[in-house]
Write a structure and sequence with these properties.
With 441 residues, this protein is an alpha/beta fold. The protein contains 19 helices and 12 strands. The structure holds glutamic acid. Glutamic acid (GLU) binds next to helix 6.
């Protein structure tokens, strides 16, 4: 059965880049009728925060990316240590004692000699007595996985055939000196034991994948299918890494971006297919194919989310926004009309508040000097009694008759006097919503 996972580290808020990974894994699982696991990569006790776990769940729920179960790495440490013991027993795991400064020095020397900066495996030559002495002097060492120095190959769902020479990669550290299990080991044990069949993640993980394949094979697990999507850049191709903090999902939500706008964009951005506004998750699932994505960095402009949000809102029925409109204090009887009037004139739902304030309190009238008498005359002619969508027609016909004005010269001064704006929704619909006039009638 198809099983995917989204595996965030709870060390910050999730952002548009993480969302892409989450969405792709979600869509693959749902399309295949499989399982989507939310895996919390929290083996780093210092940087992982419970508040971020809660936050990322809220963010995924907001988007409708529901998971079938949650796994937490911090609760599975015994599994990782058991795997480490297995690797040790088969001679694929060794302790190394170089300090970061020493490693740095080694790398610099190698680079100076024009050689790739790969860990030289000096620790493999240490005798037991030497290790004991180093341990006594420096404390426990780190544990490295001994790679088989041959080519590692896989067919990547986005990048195609990949071949990496293991001799060009350092033996990865899987356990730190203080005993902390690192991501590479934890991830591999989880993917194997949880039956993960497809791993989609950012292309910054390609080298990890090479080493992970060997660890999975050493542990006798099944190697999943891997796909590495490109990383997002800014609109000019600039790196987003520093700006991702401001592109968190919660910021976007606060700015009024609608989930379907964000999801529709992310399900297509960087693929050979155009972005299409989808109405619901089902349509997104049907239209998704990871094979259509390219390896080139993907340009992302946050501004593009707003026209998509506006388009999405235009397609919404009143029922979808009823609660939100009620919360503004719009009387229930007028609420459907309020939505019909405003939905083509907003970018985000936040804009509803401005419209309601205008309808409720009236606008600061904009009246040109030459229109003063005209407006006074017209206002005096407002129909008595409750206003409905025929009132504007009746009223302006009478005003036209009485003043001889017509067309723009008739309608525009009235619009500006009543709404304070030269543009906006159909006045026939606006008039019955103007609470000041209702109160007076
Ligand atoms: N916690 C890792 C990350 O956020 C997960 C990578 C993976 O999908 O394996 O980068």
């Amino acid at each position: 059965m198809t099983t995917t996972r989204f595996a965030p580290s709870p060390t910050g808020y999730i952002h548009v880049g993480n969302l892409r990974t989450a969405l792709m894994n979600y869509l693959i699982a749902r399309k295949a009728g499989g399982t989507f696991i939310l895996r919390i990569d929290d083996t780093d006790p210092e940087r992982s925060k419970e508040a971020y776990v809660d936050a990322l769940k809220q963010d995924l729920e907001w988007l409708g990316l529901t998971w079938d179960r949650v796994e937490r790495q911090s609760e599975r440490l015994d599994r990782y240590h058991a795997a480490a013991d297995e690797l040790r027993a088969m001679g694929r795991f060794y302790e190394a004692f170089e300090s970061p400064t020493e490693l740095d020095l080694k790398r610099k020397k190698q680079l100076n000699m024009g050689r790739p900066p790969v860990y030289d495996r000096a620790a493999l030559a240490l005798s037991d007595a030497e290790k004991d002495a180093l341990r006594a002097e420096r404390g426990a060492g780190v544990w490295r996985f001994k790679l088989d120095q041959q080519r590692i190959e896989w067919n990547d769902g986005v990048l195609g055939d990949i071949s990496i020479d293991a001799a060009s990669v350092s033996d990865p550290v899987l356990i730190r000196g203080d005993g902390q299990v690192l991501y590479t080991l934890a991830s591999v044990v989880d993917d194997t034991e949880m039956g993960v069949t497809h791993v989609v993640r950012g292309s910054d993980h390609v080298t990890n994948t090479a080493t992970q394949i060997q660890i999975i094979q050493a542990l006798g697990g099944n190697v999943p299918s891997f796909a590495h999507h490109s990383l997002l850049t800014g609109p000019q191709g600039e790196s987003l890494s520093k700006r991702l903090g401001t592109l968190s999902l919660r910021d976007l939500r606060e700015q009024g971006v609608e989930p379907m706008a964000l999801l529709s964009m992310m399900a297509r951005l960087g693929s050979a297919d155009p972005i299409e506004m989808r109405a619901d998750m089902g349509a997104l699932i049907d239209g998704f194919d990871i094979g259509r994505f390219g390896s080139a960095p993907t340009k992302f402009d946050v501004a593009d989310l707003f026209p998509l949000t506006a388009r999405h809102l235009q397609g919404l029925d009143y029922d979808a926004v009823a609660e939100r409109i009620a919360a503004l204090g719009v009387p229930e009887a007028q609420a459907p009309l309020f939505w019909a009037v405003t939905r083509d004139n907003i970018t985000t739902l936040h804009d509803l508040e401005g419209w309601w304030t205008l309808f409720r309190d009236g606008a600061e009238p904009v009246i040109e000097d030459e229109d003063r008498d005209f407006i006074a005359q017209a206002m005096a002619m407002l129909p008595e009694g409750p206003l409905d969508d025929s009132s504007w027609g009746t009223w302006t016909a009478a005003v036209k008759e009485a003043t001889g004005r017509k067309g723009r010269g008739l309608f525009m001064p009235l619009r500006k006097a009543l709404t304070g704006q030269a543009h906006g929704p159909d006045m026939a619909q606006v008039l019955p919503l103007l609470q000041v006039i209702r109160a007076r009638s």
